[in-house]
Specification:
The structure is a single chain. By secondary structure, this protein is an alpha/beta fold. Among the domains are: 172 residues, 3-Layer(bba) Sandwich (FAD/NAD(P)-binding domain); 56 residues, no CATH class. The chain contains 8 helices and 19 strands. The strands form 4 sheets. An 8-stranded mixed beta sheet has the order 5-6-4-14-15-16-13-17. A 6-stranded mixed beta sheet has the order 8-2-1-12-19-18, sandwiched between helices. A hairpin with a 6-residue loop joins strand 18 and strand 19. Helix 1 packs parallel to helix 4, helix 1 packs parallel to helix 7 and helix 2 crosses helix 4.
């Protein structure tokens, strides 16, 4: 295992093989994968694990559409396949429950053109999903209240690849896995504020500094200005935050119901009869953590879409800011001009389904061993090029 030289120790502290900024789903998966590979890991988080975009409860694991297949779609597809076994391993090792279930997804078809487009995708799904999962266009759903047949005048797309997971359950399982691993240092309440790649040193918000062999920026929207600074770019150029709002209902719903998705509205049945509804996509907002009438509008649309939840009470509301890179794809891999510093940012809405595979890519980058192929569109250089054209 070839690991790059470590940075100089600071204040007599041992220097970790890998310093990770951010303890959301991305940073936690990376810490678990790195520890399994025998690396020493220090994980710093400005708040508590999952405080940012990972702290919600939607847990939708949905594939990209199967047509016009490319590296990004293949990467996500393989990640969604692998995740089932990855979670089973976590649950076996920790005794925690992640509430993962492959339930499929229903998409109402609202026009003849939409039905024609969906029908064209059937052969694409057969070719690109390996024949393991179906993509069908039916006249109606199995039950008229999930979704409301009046919202699907031209039929229903039913695909069997989508799944869901409990975000809180997965975060607890990842933390429990790290708790029993050697060479793990978790530091809460502190953030990375600057990086000196030549010295392999990161400066923290508590005034301390820490050396590293490699460093990974998995700290959501906070990663973008740090990456831009390392590359000599304008801070807002590489990405920003998009606010999302969601609600959790006590609907007494069967947990095996497929996800329903229609025009930006997700309706997801979880365990214990709970149903998650989301989410808004707000590029402009004053309060990143407050819910408001925009969530009420999403809930109202969801109640009309799925009459089963029409009178279900809301038991929890959530709002958070999700990181979206300028190229819209995740940002993954080495940062040009910053030796030993890696990006794992910008997963936006798909992080829970691909973070484990992104972690495999970075661990392979550090150890020199073979790992998954990173799509070219994920590279930091590709995102920088898009930023330059914006």
């Amino acid at each position: 295992m070839a690991v790059a030289d470590r940075g100089a120790p600071r204040s007599g502290q041992a220097v970790p093989d890998l310093l990770i900024a951010g303890a959301g789903v991305a940073g936690l998966w990376l810490a678990v994968k790195a520890a399994r590979a025998g690396l020493s890991v220090t994980l710093v988080e400005r708040g508590n694990p999952g405080d940012g975009a990972s702290g919600g409860f939607l847990g939708a694991l949905m594939p990209h559409s199967p047509e016009r297949w490319n590296g990004k779609k293949d990467f996500q597809f393989r990640a969604l396949i692998d995740l089932e076994d990855e979670i089973a391993r976590l649950e076996s090792e920790t005794g925690e429950y992640c509430a993962y279930r492959r339930v499929g997804r229903l998409l109402p078809v609202t026009s003849e053109r939409g039905r024609a487009t969906a029908s064209e995708r059937i052969s694409d799904a057969k070719a690109n999903w390996g024949g393991r999962f179906s993509y069908e266009v039916n006249h109606t759903a199995d039950r008229g209240d999930w979704p409301n047949i009046l919202h699907a005048p031209h039929g229903i797309v039913h695909e069997t690849l989508s799944a869901r997971v409990s975000p809180p359950g997965l975060l607890v399982a990842l933390l429990s896995s790290l708790a029993v691993m050697p060479k793990i240092d978790l530091r809460l309440g502190t953030a990375v504020v600057d990086i000196i790649p030549g010295d392999k040193v990161a400066k923290l918000s508590d005034g301390s500094a820490i050396g590293f062999g490699h460093m990974a920026l998995a700290n959501g929207v906070d990663a973008f200005p740090l990456i831009a600074r390392l590359m000599g770019l304008q801070a807002p150029s590489l990405g920003g935050g998009v606010k999302g709002q969601a609600a959790l209902l006590d609907a007494k719903a069967p947990p095996g119901l497929p996800l329903v998705y229609d025009d930006g509205v997700y309706v997801i049945a979880h365990e214990n009869g709970h149903v998650a509804i989301g989410s808004t996509s707000e590029n402009k907002f004053d309060d990143p953590h407050g819910t408001d009438d925009r969530l009420d509008q999403i809930v109202e649309r969801a109640r009309k879409l799925c009459p089963m939840i029409k009178h279900a009470p809301i038991i929890r509301r959530w709002a958070g800011v999700r990181p979206r890179a300028v190229g819209r794809d995740p940002m993954l891999g080495p940062i040009p001009g910053a030796s030993g510093v890696l990006a794992m940012a910008g997963g936006f809405k798909i992080s829970f389904g691909i973070a484990h595979r992104m972690a495999d890519c970075l661990v392979a980058e550090i150890t020199g061993e073979e790992g998954p192929e990173t799509p070219l569109s994920f590279s930091v250089a590709n995102h920088a090029a898009k930023a330059a054209k914006a």
